[in-house]
Specification:
alpha/beta, 35% strand, 5 helices, 23-stranded parallel sheet, globular
């Protein structure tokens, strides 16, 4: 399915110059006052998108169909609250070295929803039910896919989405800086819950990532990528749990943040990271990811195994309270249930955990935002 919008309203030359000046003004604000910087960007967003926005209502079960939007009006809304999509990246249910994910009779839908060249677009709601194999070898299951992807769409926002059993959850690519993810529930994600391999600035807020091989990827495949350490990615009120999968013959887990020296810096507030006792792909790389934290407060780091803390696994900074074993498992379950209870109106699947709104605790993890 292709979305063909009416010609969007174009800014006059002077308005374009003013817009660029305003963005530069926001960019020079000190990183330490991240909330002021985000408020500045928000005001620019409101000013730049006041005219020309449209609403595109998607309804019904799209099954293995695709929706593609290109060059829609700035600030437009794609309303998917009554929409269902299937995500499938493998032609067979158990890809292996003899019959990988490109082989087999099963239907394929690797990119069910894509947005291109659409400034400040808002994607609201949507259920993306995946069929990506969960027990097969990662290498043979790697047929690239994402439930939702935005390309060259700065200030894009994904809100209230529910997806499970997908390859990547949400992907921001090329010139899609200053992205926003809010009130999103992802689970059983075989690769990255959020892919930000173009090293873009963004905010991830008030979301539940309940089972990701890696939570956030911020590592460019281009070895010559410039240093983006001055770029900020903010996590506020995000619950993140790593999910181990079969990887190169061993059940392993990825990273809370997959990054390196050129990756954006991190601001993490009021968030929870939970890892298991399974081997990490590269335990020493965790310290490189944690070193990208520029500012953080009031966070939990949960080592849910009863094993001793691995020697090669770096400890998080002091802005994380560390729990292990039974205490860690209980803390994750409480935070997860609290998020679900406090988001009882969220889009969900019929068999998702039942929300109990009366138990929502707005002072605890999962309910603070």
């Amino acid at each position: 399915m292709q979305c063909t919008s009416r010609p969007h309203v174009r800014l006059k030359e002077q308005e374009r110059r003013n817009f660029k000046i305003a963005l530069r003004a926001c960019g020079i604000l000190p990183a330490g006052i991240g909330r002021v910087r985000w408020l500045c960007w928000l005001l620019v967003f409101i000013w730049a998108t006041a005219a020309g926005a449209e609403t595109i209502a998607l309804g019904g079960n799209h099954a293995y169909g695709k929706f593609v939007a290109r060059e829609i009006d700035p600030g437009s809304l794609i309303d998917m609250r009554n929409s269902d999509f299937r995500v499938a990246n493998s032609g067979n249910s158990n890809p292996d070295e003899l019959s990988d994910c490109e082989t087999g009779p099963l239907p394929i839908n690797t990119y069910p929803l894509r947005v291109y060249d659409s400034k400040a677009v808002v994607l609201l709601g949507g259920r993306f039910d995946g069929e990506v194999p969960q027990s097969s070898e990662w290498v043979h299951t790697y047929c690239n896919s994402t439930a939702v992807g935005l390309w060259d769409s700065p200030y894009g926002s994904v809100e209230g989405l529910r997806a499970r059993r997908v390859w990547d959850g949400i992907r921001f690519a090329r010139a899609s800086a200053f992205f926003r993810v809010d009130r999103v529930w992802l689970s059983d994600v075989r690769d990255d819950c959020i892919e930000n391999d173009f090293l873009l600035a963004g905010m991830i807020k008030d979301s539940l990532f309940d089972g990701c091989f890696s939570v956030i990827s911020m590592r460019s495949p281009d070895d010559a990528a410039p240093d983006n350490s001055a770029t900020i990615v903010t996590l506020a009120g995000v619950l993140m749990r790593l999910q181990p999968y079969l990887y190169r013959g061993v059940v392993r887990q990825g990273f809370p943040v997959k990054g390196n020296a050129t990756s954006p810096s991190l601001v993490i507030h009021d968030s929870v990271i939970a890892i298991s006792g399974e081997e990490m792909i590269n335990p020493t790389a965790l310290s490189a990811s944690l070193s990208k934290i520029e500012d953080c407060r009031n966070n939990l780091f949960l080592f849910t195994s009863d094993k001793a803390w691995p020697d090669k696994l770096a400890k998080p900074p002091s802005c994380f309270r560390v729990l292990q074993g039974e205490a860690a498992r209980l803390a994750w379950q409480e935070a997860r249930q609290n998020w679900i209870d406090c988001h009882f109106r969220a889009v969900r699947f019929a068999d998702d955990t039942v929300a109990k709104p009366s138990r929502c605790d707005r002072t605890a993890f999962g309910g603070q935002y």
